[in-house]
């Protein structure tokens, strides 16, 4: 069974670990138990119904339906929604009864954590299914057959830790699965089908990991080595966004494909002890891909996202692997990516805010002891690790940080060298940061000039922070100049996006354009507004004006122009028209009745065959002309033909009639 | 006075009817056709008066079709009438052919005007 879902997703740029907001989307914990029970019982009904209609439902159908329930449950499990629900033994029993197919039942069992020994009455049935699965794995030809049978066996091993389960033919099965691989790192689903996919590669890695763990005496290292080169080949197909996000794409959609590959790689690296040297930036890039996807709309994609992140977060949680972790002593070869995020990318210089940096795993768990360094854009010291909040303060805030936009480049330095194997970080994380602060206005002055660049006649200093009056005199040929300079806290020149100058005469509201001052003498008020996102608003400054709401206000929108169209004539009710149509028929009926009463007949209709046909054609021609209802030129064309025809036919008919009546007269 | 007037009218109608009964059947059929056409036109005029003349084209073509064909029928009656010495040499078949031709032309115009 393969589930194919097309995925659509949007990338949002900040990569922050999944927070409680995402968790809140899901059902409260008390409801969960009930929900699952419902799903299981619903499934039972569905299977019964389906079985009674035609063929018994195949295992792939059961697995597909179960996948839905499992995905829901697994997602809740990963996100740590506490299940206090009493998953009673009854549920487990039901599951086993309903699902005759072993691999599905095992998966349900694994997720529900039924105590197999106590709750499942027929342990024998498991042993039976194990032999079935072993036989199936041996005879399998298709990748999916291998996948499900090996996976089933691993699940059995996982849940019945007492049983001594192994795959005797592992040495033979491994190469037959390996034979499905392609030179480009992708895998085929069957040996007959040349089509290969990245999604299949993920499934194959997972299967091979299972084979390795089930093999009684280990697998030949040379085979594992060729598989590793295949994995590295697959990484040549990885795709990249500009921000260092990596993903795999295929016909299954990027989320499913990437999740499949991650699942496969994590299981493979966990089952195999010699290590898999995957580039750390690729692993972090894959984690960033899933974090950047947001919340996928599709349930399957959502599950894939959460499951892949869980695999990256901690291999022990990856639901294939719980068992052999116990034997392999948690030997991590697949590093856990750490994600650096900032609670706020805007820092206020006036409030002396500290730059907070957070480092955690993809699902938001605490990172090990480490330090974060700002590598570029600023000279700063390494920060201290704050164990409580897992937040790193750059405690000595750089003195020379000025208002502006920066790109900070952070580097994560893991403190203990022992940790470096287990965790992987992005080499450098670039984060855009905006520093806001108070902007002061300096060197404000007004001057009266003879021309744009001409000599200054009079010049006055202004203090724009106070209400200050300055008197100037000028004639209509001279120009007024207002100049000022914006400076940052460190005394550098600041260039705003926008600056508005408003000149208001005492007698009038607003003089619009400066050209229309009309040389008015009197008192003017100058208002300067700076528009930019970095300066902080001074306490004294007025709030920005509200948008005009009155439609008749001078600067508000004009009233909408409504167009008047010709009002269509009213047609009478259909009934009235029909009544008159009936009335029109009445005179015709009267005409017919009158004809019968007058004793009209068609006795003189020609009786001989030739004359009768021409008479019929004559009448038919008249009818055809009357039915002509085309545009004028088409009508004329048709008429020219019909007219000639009618001429001949009518002539013959009428002359025949005339001859007949003449005969009658003469007789 | 009143009595004698109604009696005169009755006498008039009676003499008219007796005179009309002598009319040949083919002329009576044409008369019936004319009456039929005029009544149809009247119904359409009544419709216009009561409901409105919105598709004015349709109204005009409907009424004119009726009136036109009635007029043509009257012309046919004049030509076919044996009493009428003016058209003594004209065969009734020829008159009917004229009638058909004129009706075709009239109705071609009417149908294209219908809209």
Automatic annotation (TrEMBL), chain A:
It is found in: Endoplasmic reticulum membrane. One of its GO terms (biological process) is protein N-linked glycosylation. It is a multi-pass membrane protein. InterPro entries: Ribophorin_II_2nd, Ribophorin_II_3rd, Ribophorin_II_C, Ribophorin_II_N, Swp1. Pfam families: Ribophorin_II, Ribophorin_II_2nd, Ribophorin_II_3rd, Ribophorin_II_C. Residues 338-434 form the Ribophorin II second domain. One of its GO terms (cellular component) is oligosaccharyltransferase complex. Residues 442-507 form the Ribophorin II third domain. Residues 565-659 form the Ribophorin II C-terminal domain. Pathway: Protein modification; protein glycosylation. Residues 73-313 form the Ribophorin II N-terminal domain. Keywords: Endoplasmic reticulum, Membrane, Signal, Transmembrane, Transmembrane helix. It comes from the Eukaryota. The chain crosses the membrane at residues 319-342, 578-596, 608-630, 639-659. Component of the oligosaccharyltransferase (OST) complex. Belongs to the SWP1 family. Subunit of the oligosaccharyl transferase (OST) complex that catalyzes the initial transfer of a defined glycan (Glc(3)Man(9)GlcNAc(2) in eukaryotes) from the lipid carrier dolichol-pyrophosphate to an asparagine residue within an Asn-X-Ser/Thr consensus motif in nascent polypeptide chains, the first step in protein N-glycosylation. N-glycosylation occurs cotranslationally and the complex associates with the Sec61 complex at the channel-forming translocon complex that mediates protein translocation across the endoplasmic reticulum (ER). All subunits are required for a maximal enzyme activity. This is Dolichyl-diphosphooligosaccharide--protein glycosyltransferase subunit 2.
From TrEMBL, chain B:
Pathway: Protein modification; protein glycosylation. It is a multi-pass membrane protein. GO terms for biological process: protein N-linked glycosylation. GO terms for cellular component: oligosaccharyltransferase complex. Pfam families: DAD. Keywords: Apoptosis, Endoplasmic reticulum, Membrane, Transmembrane, Transmembrane helix. InterPro entries: DAD/Ost2. Subunit of the oligosaccharyl transferase (OST) complex that catalyzes the initial transfer of a defined glycan (Glc(3)Man(9)GlcNAc(2) in eukaryotes) from the lipid carrier dolichol-pyrophosphate to an asparagine residue within an Asn-X-Ser/Thr consensus motif in nascent polypeptide chains, the first step in protein N-glycosylation. N-glycosylation occurs cotranslationally and the complex associates with the Sec61 complex at the channel-forming translocon complex that mediates protein translocation across the endoplasmic reticulum (ER). All subunits are required for a maximal enzyme activity. Component of the oligosaccharyltransferase (OST) complex. Belongs to the DAD/OST2 family. PANTHER family: DOLICHYL-DIPHOSPHOOLIGOSACCHARIDE--PROTEIN GLYCOSYLTRANSFERASE SUBUNIT DAD1. This is Dolichyl-diphosphooligosaccharide--protein glycosyltransferase subunit DAD1. The lineage of its organism: Eukaryota, Viridiplantae, Streptophyta, Embryophyta, Tracheophyta.
């Amino acid at each position: 069974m393969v589930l194919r879902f097309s995925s659509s997703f949007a990338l949002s740029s900040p990569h922050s670990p999944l927070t409680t907001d995402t968790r809140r989307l899901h059902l409260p914990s008390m409801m969960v138990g009930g929900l699952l029970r419902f799903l299981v019982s619903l499934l039972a009904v569905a299977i019964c119904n389906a079985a009674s209609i035609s063929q018994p439902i195949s295992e792939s159908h059961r697995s597909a339906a179960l996948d839905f329930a499992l995905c829901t449950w697994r997602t809740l499990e990963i996100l740590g929604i506490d299940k206090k629900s009493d998953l009673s033994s009854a549920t487990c029993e039901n599951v086993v009864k309903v699902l005759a197919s072993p691999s599905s039942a095992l998966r349900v069992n694994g997720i529900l954590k039924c105590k197999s020994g106590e709750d499942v009455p027929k342990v024998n049935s498991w042993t039976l299914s194990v032999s079935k699965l072993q036989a199936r794995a041996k005879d399998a030809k298709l990748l999916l057959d291998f996948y499900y049978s090996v996976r089933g066996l691993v699940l059995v091993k996982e849940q019945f830790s007492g049983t001594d389960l192994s795959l005797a033919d592992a040495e033979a099965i491994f190469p037959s699965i390996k034979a499905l691989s392609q030179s480009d790192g992708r895998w085929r689903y069957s040996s007959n089908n040349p089509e290969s996919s990245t999604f299949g590669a993920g499934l194959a890695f997972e299967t091979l990991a299972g084979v390795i763990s089930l093999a009684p005496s280990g697998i030949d290292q040379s085979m594992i080595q060729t598989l590793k080169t295949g994995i590295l080949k697959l990484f040549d197909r990885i795709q990249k966004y500009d921000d260092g996000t990596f993903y795999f794409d295929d016909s299954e959609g990027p989320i499913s494909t990437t999740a499949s590959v991650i699942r496969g790689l994590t299981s493979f690296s966990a089952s195999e002890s010699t290590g898999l040297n995957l580039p750390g930036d690729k692993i972090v890039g894959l984690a960033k891909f899933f974090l950047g996807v947001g919340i996928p709309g599709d349930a399957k994609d959502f599950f894939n996202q959460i499951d892949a992140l869980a695999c990256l977060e901690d291999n022990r949680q990856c639901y294939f692997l719980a068992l052999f972790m116990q034997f392999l002593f948690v030997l991590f070869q697949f590093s856990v990516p750490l994600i650096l995020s900032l609670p706020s990318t805007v820092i206020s210089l006036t409030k002396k805010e500290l730059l907070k940096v957070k480092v955690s795993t993809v699902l938001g768990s605490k990172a090990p002891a480490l330090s974060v360094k700002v590598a570029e854009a600023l000279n700063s010291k390494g920060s201290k690790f704050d164990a409580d909040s897992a937040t790193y303060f750059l405690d000595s805030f750089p003195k020379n940080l000025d208002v502006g936009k920066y790109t900070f480049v952070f580097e994560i330095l893991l403190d203990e060298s022992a940790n470096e194997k287990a965790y992987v970080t992005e080499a450098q994380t670039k984060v855009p940061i905006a520093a806001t602060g108070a902007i002061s206005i300096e060197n404000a002055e007004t001057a009266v000039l003879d021309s744009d660049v001409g000599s200054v006649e009079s010049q006055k200093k202004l203090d724009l922070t106070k209400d200050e009056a300055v008197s100037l005199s000028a004639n209509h040929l001279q120009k007024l100049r207002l100049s000022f300079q914006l400076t940052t806290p460190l005394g550098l020149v600041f260039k705003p996006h926008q600056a508005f100058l408003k000149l208001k005469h005492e007698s009038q509201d607003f003089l619009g354009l400066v050209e229309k001052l009309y040389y008015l003498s009197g008192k003017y008020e100058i208002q300067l507004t700076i528009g930019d996102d970095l300066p902080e608003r001074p306490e004294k400054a007025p709030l920005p004006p509200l948008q005009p709401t009155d439609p008749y206000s001078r600067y508000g929108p004009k009233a909408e122009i409504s167009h008047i169209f010709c009002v269509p004539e009213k047609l009478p009710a259909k009934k009235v028209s029909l009544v008159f149509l009936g009335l029109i028929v009445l005179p015709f009926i009267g005409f017919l009745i009158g004809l019968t009463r007058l004793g009209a007949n068609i006795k003189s209709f020609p009786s001989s065959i030739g004359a009768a046909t021409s008479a019929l054609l004559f009448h038919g021609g008249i009818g055809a002309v009357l039915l002509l209802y085309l545009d004028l030129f088409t009508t004329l064309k048709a008429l020219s033909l019909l007219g000639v025809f009618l001429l001949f036919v009518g002539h013959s008919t009428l002359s025949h009639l005339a001859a007949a009546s003449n005969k009658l007269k003469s007789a | 006075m009143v009595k004698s007037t109604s009696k005169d009218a009755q006498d008039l109608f009676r003499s008219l009817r007796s005179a009309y009964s002598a009319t040949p059947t083919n002329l009576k059929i044409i008369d019936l056709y004319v009456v039929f056409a005029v009544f149809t036109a009247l119904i359409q005029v009544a419709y216009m008066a009561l409901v409105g003349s919105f598709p004015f084209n349709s109204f005009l073509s409907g009424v004119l079709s009726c009136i036109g064909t009635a007029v043509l029928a009257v012309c046919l009656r004049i030509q076919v009438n044996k009493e009428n010495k003016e058209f003594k040499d004209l065969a009734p078949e020829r008159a009917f052919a004229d009638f058909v031709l004129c009706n075709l032309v009239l109705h071609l115009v009417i149908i294209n005007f219908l809209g």
